[in-house]
Fold each of these.
Amino acid sequence: MKYKAFKKFLVAGLGVLAVASLFSFIKTNQQVEAAKKSSSSLIIYFSKTGNTKRVAQRIQKETGAKILRITPKKAYPNDYDATTRVAQDQIRKNIHPAIKTKLPSIKKYKHIYIGFPTWWMQPPMIIHTLFDRYNFRGKTITPFTTSAESSISSSMPVMRRLAKHDKAKLTKGYRYTSNSSLHGFLISIGAIKRNRKAKINKKKNTNPATTPRPTNSKSLVVYFSMSGQTQKAAQEIQRLTNSNIFRIQAANPYPSDYDGYARRGDNERRNNIHPAIQGTIPNWNRYSTVYVGFPTWWQQPPMIIHTLFDQYNFRGKIIVPFTTSMSTPMSASMPYMRQLAQPYNATVLNGFRYTGNNTALRSWLQNLDLI
């Protein structure tokens, strides 16, 4: 009797095990199928605010590559100002912060994407630590960064130096601006193939953008933009609020290349130079609400925004600041905006950092009762 019961139990157990094994086989097969194109690619990234993480995840989705997030053994402070002080000290003293993450072997990977936020026109020092810990000899490295202020070109000299030391091949780098541009970049380096069907559909569904004519609106979007990111934000605010719009341009134009306008912008900041603005804003006195947009440069508004407040009377107006930066929060620029508005007794509302998310932008405007 006991033998029969045991036999029954054994047969049932083997049946369960067989089903479980079959499920495991199917699941493993699915994972292997999904990872076919990723078996030789790896994404390694460092992210402080979460922006670089989102880009890394997008690359993973596009390419199917494996992904690894590196974090420092001693975490950066949550406070922005404290983080900047620590990071600046690491750069000045050439400190390579220890990595907390357990690093696996990279022997099987041929193509490695390395992602980071740009800090002071270069990769954070933890990227140096990554090269200390790994030998990238024979690997193909593709750098990507998140920054609305600095182009990838500012980080490439450091990446070239690190790659050259390991005798690794370095592809062109990429600064994230949108998912569509990221897709195009991945195609350009041969990481993914062009989807012809998607391209045809895009052509069919794309409508030319239109800019509304000036209206009798009591609100104005005034902005300064070098890379085009702030312009995108300004145009979306204009569309949502039905405001008029005016782009600030320097009377003496900034150089078009990043290194050129970065040097000039830094010189203006250090020497408190307020560059002259080209043209004038028509019907200034009509506006009661003014949206002021700019890229964050060196944790503050560019000096041409100071010129705006020198040249125009903001008395009695409501000022709504917005900025574009992938690494610097809006809070860094708010003290400057309040200081500029103070002589006019103008009201400064909570500002917004635009990262390309139009839903978040709409929510911000709704929370301020502006739409």
Amino acid sequence: MAGGNLPGAATIPHPARMRGYAAVLVSNLFFGVAVGMFLPLLPLKLDQMGVSPLMIGINAAASSCAIFFTAPLIGGVLRRVGYTGAVFGGAWVFAAGVVAMVFIPGYWAWTILRFLAGLGMSVHWVASESWLNQAADERERGRILSLYVACFIGGTAAGPLVLTAIGSQGSTGFLVIAGLAAASALAIGPGRAGAPIFEPLAKAALAKVFRLAPRLMTAGLLMGVAQGAALGMMALYGVRAGLTEDKAALLQAALLGGGLLLQFPIGWLADRVQDRHRLIVVLALVSVVGAALLVPLTDRPVLLYPMLVVWGGCLIGLYTVALALLGARFAMIGGMAAANAAFILTWELGTFSGAPIAGAVMQAIGPAGLPLAMGLSAGAVGVLMAWRAALDRPG
């Protein structure tokens, strides 16, 4: 996460800043539940319509594609409406895209509307994270951002459970998702006095980040591939592997639950190991083992769900430790905001690619294509970080 104290951190009164934190956290809890329902619902609905895994993967990528459209524009949005307006508006755009799917059915319509919902999702995400990062001072930054990630992951893990309770049939799921997004928008209002003033990012710094840390940026891309495949296609894997829809949706919940439960222990380790690159190698190896175990354990739930918790914790932990590496790398030389933006873009490029790649492999070899794609991506992250650990120079 971006480091350094920006002007807003020092000028916002403490009570207002606390209310701002609380508003962003509650907003992201609601939004996380909405996203957690949305991610498995569309693949399940499209599968019911007879759409192929590859085309379902392309539809899933539409959400991630939106970040590449919003990234060049987010600065202008924040200058015009501020952080409060961006979080509020992003949630409503997401809700509008979801509600429209009820009235405009069909694969291509849903792909376009998923892109629209993705625009709202990406604006909400970037604005929320930037709000907290800019408003926090250095003494509280880690704790505030940990709460933020925990709220969103916790909400996202709860989403499939809610979907399991209400089912994927009919329009109820879409309407509940839209209602949660609306609650997310309304929750931000009480914290508007704690929003910092937007500080623009120097665009020229982005290219320098890629030159200074090419392996870390490439690893971010591969992490995104693995996580994009998991979040976009795990429910479909379960159905194709013979599970019922409710049990298939629980696969994703277990993965995200692992990310929620294990994030703090992994962060604790990251603060104590001498070389965080080696910790990423270990997490990547565990992720490869998890991918190898998915198929043989699918019909053994007593072993499957604990494995998914550990696997999900390590997959999400890769991103957490990589951000810690990013902070250590750029804290002394400056450019933290540019480094964070560059890493997010590479990670989103990976999530954009992950679902179509996994869908194509699944179409070619069956359900086992998903863990194969995820395992290869995680293994490549491990190789890159082992390479970096063997070098003396940064990057």
Amino acid sequence: MNAVVEALSLLTPFDMDRPKTRIGPHSDGGYVFVDSITSDQTVLSYGIGGEYRFDTLMAENGHDVYMFDHTITGVPLANARMHWFKEGVSGTSRPGDSLFSIEDHLRRHGITGDRMILKMDVEGAEFEALGLASPETLARFEQIVVEIHDLKNLSDPGYRAAFGTMMRNLNRHFTLFHVHANNCDGPNRFHVVDGVPVSNLLELSFVKTSTVVPSPSRTLYPTVHDHPNIPQKDKLLWFFPFLPTTAPTADFLACADRIDLVYPPYPPLERKPPGPWTSGMRKIKRWLAGIASATAAK
């Protein structure tokens, strides 16, 4: 079985019976949610950097916003509902490094609520933080938006295991209802991993499954709710597992397996030695280059 295709199948989005809305700027820092948010929902925002327009807007709309980032010195708190802490997030707490689990953040800061909103953009720490979060902790959130990083590494077993653990933990009680490819690495930049196209950075929106009625996706991404992260052309997610299709995941896996059976991938770093035809073509190219050089000299 093609392990990369199997892993990517965990990113299959669904449609639902509720409308969507975008909160935040029409650029990097804006996120897509189910349009059911009320001002009594507390927001946990992990990964701030220099972009906190989403946080400011949520505070202005009456939400208490708890902001965590251990990599910056501070945030201008324009609203009394904004609370910033120089702390990062991890799967297990490491106080010496100013890193704490989501559960410990909720406990240490006395954060209450059982319909909270979670936003996370933490440059790779999301896999451990969400992968190791307990069902009881995740159950306190109604919606989760997260950016996942470095999908170009899906061929690496360690990365793939961490990715799979996180996605299965989320998919257990949440529905992935929106996806968007971050275009910061270029509008046409995609990676081919084990023969499969992959976008390196994805923004994912989840909602608690018990609050919606999911259905197979008929949505083409990007949508009217999406905007490029940086001012250049957005990316089309017109490939597995985002392109709407009636074909089940098993058909994609079987297709990938057929390719591997006919032409199995080479082991890492192994290359086929050039055959007679390849060597001959190289000689012809050198000969043509010599003619072009001599002609230019005349």
Amino acid sequence: MNYPIICAILFNTLYRNQPIQGNTLYIILLKIIYIQGYDLYIIYETYWAGYIIAEKDLGYRRVQSTGRGSYIISLPKEWIKNLNLEKGSEIAFNLHSDSTITLIPRKIKEKTGDITEAKLKEYFINIDATKEDLYAILRMIRALYVISADIIRIHFKSAEDATKTKNKIKQFARNTLLGAEIIDETQDEIVLQTLIKHSEFPIEKAVRRMAIIALSANRDTILALKDQKKELFESVINARNDANRLGLYIVRQLKFGISRNMFRELGFKTPKEFLLYRIIVNDIKNITENALNIINNLANLKKQVDNEEIFIKEPLDEEVYLQILNFNSEAHKLFEETMKAMFKRSYTDSEKIIAKRGSFIQNENDLLRLLSIKKLDPNNAAIYRLVMDSSRRILDYSQDIAELTLNRTVEEICTSFEIK
């Protein structure tokens, strides 16, 4: 008597040649066979099919520049057609430790389950508006923003006492936190979310913009010496606030990169460059703080004169003003050269900048001598010295950043005995 035999065959494979698309691989996941006597019956069979494209050398392709600091390279047409990609298709770029890059179309990553949506970092703050210090609350919100919080939920224990505090928080978010928006609000809660992504506004671009704003604020303080218009005063205050927002955003980016060891993704060659940019941001911020200090002193002096609390015989000495304007202009040029050398990673240019800094000492001494021999009103003389000191500090910041650039690039030029 013949007894039936049931066999389960797992992971059986076979290949079938297909034109154009290379080889098609069929993997039989499960085959159930019923055998009785000499008869064989296939009861159930399931398989998975996919394409294997043989490795192919596609040659070299030239890297091209768009003229805006970005680089582009064309993708192989055959590869695009085989994968049915088109304009707007998304491709993931994975950078490996050996500096090679793997390109994976999004639809392939989705099929293989490799795409993992990053979970938003969410934090909660409970506030008793009647007891807690408003500035302590704002500092906590700023600290959460800096450590790359995506969502901040601010809950108020008493909705009745929350209105004033909520308005202050919303104003603070608008003026201080770049990219942060109120996405939800109820009587007892505000939800802040940072919508700007790190890839949308790179660190280098933010630092460039911050430097431009800082020098503009400093320049307006010089103009305000001669023309004390309200618009100039407001321009300096707004520039200082804008620079602070950018500075806080850059620090947020740096902390984000450090926590994930993403120095290459952020355009750095080594993790040490995180510290370099942190110091540069601090120097640029100081330029705007010095400008604000001058404007505050000028505004206070103007108020006293307008109220006839003090009397100034000669509001402005033209010779002193022109000398200060010239000294400030030279300081700006040196700072701009310094930033260019830093972004270019130029060791040679940075050395020249450091050497050039010493040539301004005579200019400073001449300006100090002019201030001492002029019979200036003490109030004006104090303002002139503040302005001159701010220009001198810009020269010092230029030297500091140039020295940072030396530290950043010295290993690149001292790897051999070749003359460079």
